[in-house]
UniProtKB/TrEMBL annotation:
<feature type="transmembrane region" description="Helical">
    <location>
        <begin position="247"/>
        <end position="267"/>
    </location>
</feature>
<keyword id="KW-0472">Membrane</keyword>
<protein>
    <recommendedName>
        <fullName>EamA domain-containing protein</fullName>
    </recommendedName>
</protein>
<feature type="transmembrane region" description="Helical">
    <location>
        <begin position="7"/>
        <end position="26"/>
    </location>
</feature>
<keyword id="KW-0614">Plasmid</keyword>
<dbReference type="Pfam" id="PF00892">
    <property type="entry name" value="EamA"/>
</dbReference>
<feature type="transmembrane region" description="Helical">
    <location>
        <begin position="70"/>
        <end position="89"/>
    </location>
</feature>
<feature type="domain" description="EamA">
    <location>
        <begin position="12"/>
        <end position="140"/>
    </location>
</feature>
<feature type="transmembrane region" description="Helical">
    <location>
        <begin position="38"/>
        <end position="58"/>
    </location>
</feature>
<dbReference type="InterPro" id="IPR050638">
    <property type="entry name" value="AA-Vitamin_Transporters"/>
</dbReference>
<feature type="domain" description="EamA">
    <location>
        <begin position="155"/>
        <end position="290"/>
    </location>
</feature>
<dbReference type="GO" id="GO:0005886">
    <property type="term" value="C:plasma membrane"/>
</dbReference>
<comment type="similarity">
    <text>Belongs to the EamA transporter family.</text>
</comment>
<keyword id="KW-0812">Transmembrane</keyword>
<feature type="transmembrane region" description="Helical">
    <location>
        <begin position="186"/>
        <end position="205"/>
    </location>
</feature>
<feature type="transmembrane region" description="Helical">
    <location>
        <begin position="273"/>
        <end position="292"/>
    </location>
</feature>
<feature type="transmembrane region" description="Helical">
    <location>
        <begin position="154"/>
        <end position="174"/>
    </location>
</feature>
Length: 309
């Protein structure tokens, strides 16, 4: 009974993350009109890191030890520096809807890396759900990715895919080395290390460029920094270490779908038939991975384990 209650709690956290991150994409689209992409990322994560440090101070949390510092530095480079620099630069060439979709190809890479490095099983339902999820993303993106002749767009899309792989790599490292650690500490220190890299990039690339501070831009920075970064990434690490990597990651495929819906609802973006088809495929994929026939999934996993042994 207690285990079931915990599962409901982690599922609730996952749904909360999906909704908050989805709205964050809409606000990011607006926020990039007030300042350069690297400057936006730097201010966002300076706020996020500051908020996390304050929380750790009041919690009197312990500091990492020994090799944990180096591992957290690597996670910070992957999770914050590389991921968000690649995202913000890639978004200079690719629209927000497609950017969010490409970033959330992360479950594909998480499933593959989890299988290779964590020896997590890829049973029938997970494989099918991944295939459906990929098909849904391809439907939403359209065939432009494979046929488009604009080299700058292709370049931007490749950067966004690299960002997704970087995120997946950070997820695997966190799950491998910090499953039993305080996730607030893990999230804070990786963010601090990653923020240093983002700030350096902003200074080198956008020093002297104008920044518009308005009530709206300040709200966007606070939301994307404190809520979408500090709160959501801490919750994500909790969910990631308590749920199967593939299941948790596949569920995040809902983020670009909700973001596209919010773009349509709040910003007037067009809703096309390929987006609707893609949403259906992703929904079925998530359903197969997380809901349908749990007993049969366990039998398949047990069967796979017996074969390996």
């Amino acid at each position: 009974m207690k285990k079931m209650s915990s599962q409901y709690l982690y599922t609730f956290l996952l749904v909360t993350i999906i909704l908050l991150w989805s709205y964050g994409w809409v606000l990011t689209k607006i926020g990039l009109s007030y300042m350069g992409p690297f400057t936006f990322a730097a201010l966002r994560f300076l706020l996020a890191s500051f908020a996390m440090i304050i929380v750790l101070f009041f919690l009197k949390a312990t500091k990492p030890k020994g090799m944990e510092w180096i591992i957290l530095f690597i996670v910070g480079l992957l999770q914050t520096t590389a991921m968000f620099l690649l995202i913000n630069y890639g978004m200079m060439f690719v629209n927000v809807s497609k950017s969010s979709i490409l970033i959330y190809s992360m479950p594909i890479w998480s499933g593959i890396l989890g299988y290779i490095f964590l020896h997590e099983s890829l049973n029938y339902y997970k494989v099918i759900s991944l295939v459906l999820g990929i098909s849904g993303l391809v439907s939403i993106i359209g065939f432009e990715f494979f046929t488009i002749q604009n080299k700058s767009v292709i370049f931007g899309e490749c950067l966004l895919l690299l960002a997704a792989i970087s995120w997946a790599g950070a997820n695997i490292i966190v799950k491998k080395y910090f499953s039993n650690h305080n996730k607030m500490i893990v999230s804070t220190w990786q963010m601090i290390f990653g923020t240093i890299g983002v700030v350096v990039a902003a200074i080198l690339m956008e020093w002297g460029q104008p920044i518009q501070f308005t009530p709206m831009s300040i709200f966007i920075l606070i939301y994307t920094g404190v809520i979408a970064s500090s709160f959501c990434f801490t919750c994500w690490y909790v969910v990631l270490t308590k749920l199967d990597t593939t299941v948790a990651s596949i569920s995040l495929l809902f983020v670009p779908l909700v973001a596209i819906f919010l773009d349509w609802l709040l910003l007037g973006e067009k809703m096309t038939i390929n987006i609707a088809i893609g949403a259906l495929l992703v929904t079925i994929g998530v359903y197969l991975a997380t809901v349908v026939k749990p007993k049969e999934r366990r039998k398949i996993e047990q069967f796979s384990t017996n074969i390996k042994s």
